[in-house]
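dumping these here so i dont lose them again. two proteins, back to back, each one seq then C-alpha cells. dont judge the mess
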Amino acid sequence: MWDVEIRGMASAHAIIASSIFMATVMPAVFVENFSVYGSHMVWLYCVAGSVAVVNIAVFWLLGISPPTKKNTLSYKINRLFKSCLYFVLSCLFFHTVVVLYGAHLLESALETFSLAVLLSTLTTLRCLCILGPNVQAWIRVFSRDGAMSVWDTSLQITTGCSVIGAWLGAFPIPLDWDRPWQVWPNSCTLGATTGFLTGLLAAPVWIHWHRKQLTYKLK
C-alpha cells in the first residue's frame, strides 16, 4: 500500500513539475522576445495559472480531496466561495508579510502582490486541494506530528520548501551585482518556484526513505 501511494504521489508531482516547465517554455511561442527575466510578470502568472489548473485537476482525478458531507448545490457553492475567499486572504497575508520583511509598501506594489499570488498558489492552493477549506485541518497538518497521510506529509514538505525558497531568494537582492534576476521580485519568485520543485522531488523520496518510521493516526 505504501508503494502504491508513493508511486501515485511521485506521478502527480511529476505532472505538476512538468506544468511549470511548460509554463516556462510555451509563452516564448506567443510572446515576442519573451524571457523569464525580461517578461517576468508574464512568466510568473503563467506558472501560477498552470500550477493552479494542474493541481486542481490532478487532486480531483486522484480523489485526494476530503469527501464532502453534503452533495447539495448550495453546499458546493458555499465550499467554492470559502476556498476562493481563503485564497484571496492568503494573497493578502503573504503580501503583508513580504512588506513587513522590507518590500516597499506602494512602490512595486503590483510585483509584491504577484509574488504573494505565486506563494499562495504553491502553498495555500495545495492545502485547499488536499484538505479543503478547513482551517482546523490546516492547523493540524502543520502542527507537530499532525500529518495523517502521505499527502499531508508532502504538503508539509512542499509548503516549507516554497516559503524557504522565497526567503532565500531575497538575499541576493541588496548586492550590487546588477544582474537582471536581482530585480524585485525575480529572485524571490525564482527561489519560491525552485523550492517548490525541490519539495515535489523530495517529498516522495523522503516518505519512501522513512516509511518504516512513519505512523499515521486514523482519521
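---- next one ----
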Amino acid sequence: MSFLFSSRSSKTFKPKKNIPEGSHQYELLKHAEATLGSGNLRQAVMLPEGEDLNEWIAVNTVDFFNQINMLYGTITEFCTEASCPVMSAGPRYEYHWADGTNIKKPIKCSAPKYIDYLMTWVQDQLDDETLFPSKIGVPFPKNFMSVAKTILKRLFRVYAHIYHQHFDSVMQLQEEAHLNTSFKHFIFFVQFNLIDRRELAPLQELIEKLGSKDR
C-alpha cells in the first residue's frame, strides 16, 4: 500500500495503476489498506466475508504491482546493464524473458531490460478489461486465475533480484523496512497456492525467517 512509503520513495518505475474511485474494487482496496494499517498482515490477506475471490486477487495483484513498481523505482540507478548484465537472484538462479506473444523463445537479457519487459507485460494485463474487469457485473474470464498466478510469479522475481543484488543499496536508502513489509505481505498473500513453492526457492530462507517472526 502506498502509505508504507516515504515521499522520498514516490518515484515509480512505470506509471502507477489506479483503481477507479467509487468502484467496488476501490472499496476492497480501502478495506485491505485499513486492515494492513492495523499491522496484522495475515489478517490483511484473508478474503473478506462475502467477497468474490477473483476480485480480491485482482485488487491485490494491482496493489502488489504498484508496490514493486515503487520499490524498484527507488533503486533503478543501481540496477544497470553494467551492474546486472543478467536477470538473476543470486548465483544459482537466472531468469530469461518470454511472454509467449512478442517474445516466444526465452531470451537472456540484463536485469533492467528483463524488469522493463516484465513490468510492461504486467501493465498490459492489468489494463486489459477482458482480463481485469473494473466494472461491476462484468465477469472475470475463465483463464483469470492462471494469468494472475503468472503475474504474481513474475513479480516475485523482482523482489528476489532486489534482495539478492541490491539490498545494500536499499539499506543505504533506508528503505529496508518498506521492502521487508511489502515482501512479507506479498508472501502471506501468495501462500494460498498462488505461486509454486519451487518458484520461491531463491528467497526461501528469508520467507522462513519472516514466517517464524510472525508466530
